[in-house]
Amino acid sequence: MKRLFSVLVFSLLVSMTFAQNNLFTAIGSSDVATLSSKFGSDVEICIGTEQDFYSKSSATKRLEKFFAEVHPKTSKFKHKGNNKNKTSEYSVGTMTSEKGNYRVFIYYEGEKITGLMFNKDE
To answer: Which region is the signal sequence (predicted)?
Structure first.
C-alpha cells in the first residue's frame, strides 16, 4: 500500500513538472497557441513595467506582439511553488531572446494560467 501511494505521488509530480516544462518550451518557441490553450478567461500580463488584465483573446494578441518584438530563442523551467493559502500556484523560469534575457513567472489557479510576468535581466 505504501509503495502504491509513493508511485501515485511520484507520477503526479512528474506529470505536473512535464506540463510546466511544456509551457516553458512553448515560450521558448513563441508557441502562443499552446500557452493560450491554458489561459483562464482573464489573464494578467506584465512585461517590464507594463501591466494589464486582458481577455483570453486579447492576451493571446499581446503575447504574439511581445514575442514578435523580442524573438525568444529558449526558455527553461526552474522551480514551482504556491501561495501560503495554497489557492494558487506559480512556476518560475527563464527566457533567452534576441533582445535579452528574462525571468518568467507563470501564475495558475487550478489548471488555468491567470498571469504571466516577463522581467528583463539588467
So the answer is: 1-19
